[in-house]
C-alpha cells in the first residue's frame, strides 16, 4: 500500500514508499548529520532485506530450543503441575505473546529499523534510551543465565574427560574453580561468534536448529528407556488437580511464560528489519514460535516427569539430567547439543538486542560489536548462578517481574505505532533533532507518564513467599498485590491506554502538524 510522502525535515531526503508498503531511503542517501546515527542504526536498504519465511522460522526454532526454555517447562513440573497442565500453560502463553511480537515486528519490516530507533517515535530521540537500556539490562541477565548453563555443560564434559581432579576441584566462591574456568571459556566462545557479525548469527542458527531438536528427542528416548516405557512418564499426576489450587498457580505461570519472550516482543524489529516482506515475518514467526515452543516444552515436561518416576524427585535442570548418563558417548552427544542450543539462542536472543541498545546510547562511540562486548561484561555482574538456582526464583520472581516491566514498554510501542500513527513514520526524522520526534528536549513526556504508571501497576504488588525471593510477602505496595499475578497484562494494557489517551487528547503540536501533512494511513 502506498502513502503520500511526509513533509521533509530541513536536513533530510524524502523517504521512498515501495508498492509492497515497505519504506526506505534512496540508495546512498545520507542521513542527517548528528549524534543519533551510525552504520548499525541506519535503515536497512531494500536490497539487503532478504530474510524470508524460512529464515524467521529457523530463527524461532533455534531460539525456542534452548536450556532456559527447557527449565521453564520443566520448572512447572517441579513446582507442582503435571505434564498436561504445563503444556496448556506454555502453549497458551506463546500464542498470546505472538500477537505483540508480530505487531512490533511490523515496524522493523516496514522501515528497516532496529528497536532503539523504533522507540524514538514514541519516547523521543533521547527518551528512547530508557526502554533500550531496560531491555538491554534484562537481556544482560538472560545472557548471563545462558552462559552459566553453557559453562555447566563444559564443566561436566571436561570432568568426564579429565576425571575427579577436575570435577572435585577446590571450591572458590561456592563453586569449584574449574566451574569458573568453564564459565569463562564458554563466555569467550560466544563473544568470538558475535564479533563475526549478524551473518554469523544467522548461519549458526540455520544449521543448529535441526540438531537441537534431534538432541531433545534423543534425551526423551533415553528417559523412556530408563523409566521402562512411556507409561511411567504419563502416569505422573499433579496434586493440584484442576481446581482452585491449579488456577492459583496457573496465572502467575502464564505471565512467566509471556515474560520469557517479553524482551523479544520489544526488539524483534532488530531481526524483522531484514525481512523481504511483511508476510515473511508474520508467517515465519507464526510457524516458528508457538509450534516449536510447544513441541520442545512437551519434550521437557515428559523428560522431567520421567526423572520424577526414575529418581523419586523431578530434575528440572537438563544439565543435571544428562549428568546421570552412564554411557560416555551418550553424555558427549547430549552435552554437545546443550552447548549448541545455548550458543545459538544466547547470541540471537540476548546479545543482538543489547548490542543495538548500547549503540543507540552513544552512536558515535559505540557500534554493534562494542555494544556486544559491553553486554558480555555486564552479564557476569548480575550473578546468573543465583537467578537460576531455584525454580520459584526463576519463574515467579525473575520472569514475572521482567514480564511486567517490559509489558509496559510494549503497550506504549503498540499504542504509538498502531493507534496514534497508524503505522506511519518519517524515517529521516528518527535520526534528527530537527524532526518531529524530538518533542521536548528529546523526551516525550506522555510515554514517560505511561511508563511510570504502567510499571507501578504491573510490578508494585510483586511479592515472594517468605524466604523465597527479594520481595516482601505482602508485596512492595500491598494494595496492588492482587495485580501481581497478571503483571504483563496489567503493564501492557494500562500503558497502552494511557499513552493513547495522552497522545490523542494532549498531542505534541509539532507532531500534530506533521501528521496533518501526511494524512494517508499505512
UniProtKB/TrEMBL annotation:
CDD domains: SLC-NCS1sbd_YbbW-like. GO terms for molecular function: nucleobase transmembrane transporter activity. It is found in: Membrane. Pfam families: Transp_cyt_pur. The chain crosses the membrane at residues 58-79, 86-109, 177-197, 204-224, 246-266, 287-311, 331-353, 365-388, 394-420, 441-459, 479-502. Keywords: Membrane, Transmembrane, Transmembrane helix. It comes from the Bacteria. Gene3D superfamilies: Hydantoin permease. Its main location: membrane. InterPro entries: NCS1 (IPR012681), Pur-cyt_permease (IPR001248), Uracil/uridine/allantoin_perm (IPR045225). GO terms for cellular component: plasma membrane. It is a multi-pass membrane protein. Signal peptide: none annotated. Belongs to the purine-cytosine permease (2.A.39) family. This is NCS1 family nucleobase:cation symporter-1. It comes from Nocardiopsis alba.
Amino acid at each position: 500500500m502506498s502513502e503520500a510522502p511526509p513533509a521533509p525535515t530541513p536536513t533530510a531526503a524524502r523517504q521512498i514508499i515501495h508498492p509492497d508498503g515497505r519504506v526506505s531511503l534512496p540508495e546512498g542517501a545520507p542521513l542527517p548529520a548528528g549524534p543519533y546515527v551510525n552504520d548499525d542504526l541506519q535503515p536497512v536498504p531494500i536490497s539487503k532485506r532478504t530474510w524470508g519465511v524460512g529464515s524467521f522460522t529457523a530463527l524461532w526454532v533455534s531460539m525456542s530450543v534452548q536450556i532456559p526454555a527447557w527449565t521453564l517447562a520443566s520448572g512447572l513440573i517441579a513446582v507442582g503441575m503435571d505434564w498436561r497442565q504445563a503444556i496448556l500453560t506454555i502453549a497458551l502463553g506463546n500464542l498470546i505473546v505472538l500477537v505483540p511480537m508480530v505487531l512490533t515486528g511490523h515496524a522493523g519490516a516496514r522501515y528497516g529499523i532496529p528497536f532503539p530507533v523504533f522507540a524514538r517515535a514514541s519516547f523521543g530521540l533521547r527518551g528512547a534510551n530508557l526502554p533500550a537500556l531496560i531491555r538491554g539490562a534484562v537481556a544482560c541477565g538472560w545472557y548471563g543465565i545462558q552462559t552459566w548453563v553453557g559453562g555447566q555443560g563444559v564443566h561436566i564434559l571436561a570432568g568426564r574427560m579429565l576425571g575427579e581432579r577436575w570435577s572435585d576441584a577446590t571450591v572458590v566462591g561456592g563453586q569449584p574453580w574449574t566451574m569458573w574456568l568453564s564459565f569463562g571459556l564458554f563466555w569467550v566462545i560466544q563473544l568470538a561468534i558475535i564479533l563475526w557479525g549478524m551473518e554469523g548469527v544467522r548461519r549458526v542458527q540455520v544449521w543448529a536448529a535441526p540438531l537441537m531438536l534431534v538432541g531433545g528427542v534423543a534425551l526423551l528416548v533415553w528417559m523412556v528407556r530408563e523409566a521402562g516405557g512411556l507409561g511411567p512418564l504419563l502416569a505422573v499426576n499433579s496434586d493440584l488437580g484442576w481446581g482452585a489450587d491449579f488456577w492459583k498457580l496457573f496465572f502467575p505461570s502464564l505471565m512467566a511464560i509471556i515474560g520469557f519472550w517479553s524482551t523479544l516482543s520489544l526488539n524483534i524489529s532488530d531481526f524483522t528489519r531484514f525481512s523481504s516482506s511483511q508476510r515473511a515475518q508474520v508467517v515465519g514467526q507464526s510457524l516458528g514460535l508457538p509450534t516449536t515452543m510447544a513441541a520442545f516444552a512437551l519434550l521437557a515436561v515428559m523428560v522431567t516427569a520421567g526423572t520424577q518416576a526414575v529418581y523419586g524427585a523431578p530434575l528440572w535442570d537438563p544439565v543435571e539430567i544428562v549428568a546421570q548418563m552412564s554411557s560416555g558417548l551418550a553424555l558427549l552427544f547430549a552435552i554437545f547439543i546443550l552447548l549448541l542450543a545455548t550458543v545459538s539462542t544466547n547470541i540471537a536472543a540476548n546479545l543482538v538486542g543489547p548490542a543495538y541498545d548500547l549503540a543507540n546510547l552513544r552512536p558515535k562511540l559505540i557500534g554493534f560489536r562494542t555494544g556486544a562486548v559491553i553486554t558480555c561484561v555486564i552479564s557476569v555482574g548480575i550473578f546468573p548462578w543465583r537467578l537460576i538456582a531455584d525454580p520459584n526464583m526463576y519463574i515467579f520472581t525473575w520472569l514475572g517481574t521482567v514480564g511486567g516491566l517490559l509489558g509496559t514498554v510494549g503497550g506504549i510501542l503498540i499504542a504509538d505505532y498502531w493507534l496514534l500513527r497508524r503505522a506511519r513514520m518519517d524515517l529521516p526524522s528518527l535520526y534528527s533533532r530537527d524532526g518531529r520526534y524530538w518533542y521536548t528536549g528529546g523526551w516525550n513526556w506522555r510515554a514517560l507518564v505511561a511508563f511510570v504508571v504502567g510499571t507501578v501497576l504491573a510490578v508494585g504488588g510483586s511479592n515472594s513467599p517468605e524466604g523465597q525471593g527479594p520481595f516482601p510477602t505482602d508485596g512492595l505496595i500491598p494494595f496492588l498485590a492482587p495485580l501481581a499475578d497478571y503483571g504483563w497484562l496489567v503493564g501492557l494494557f494500562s500503558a497502552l491506554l494511557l499513552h493513547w489517551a495522552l497522545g490523542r487528547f494532549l498531542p505534541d503540536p509539532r507532531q500534530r502538524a506533521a501528521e496533518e501533512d501526511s494524512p494517508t494511513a499505512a
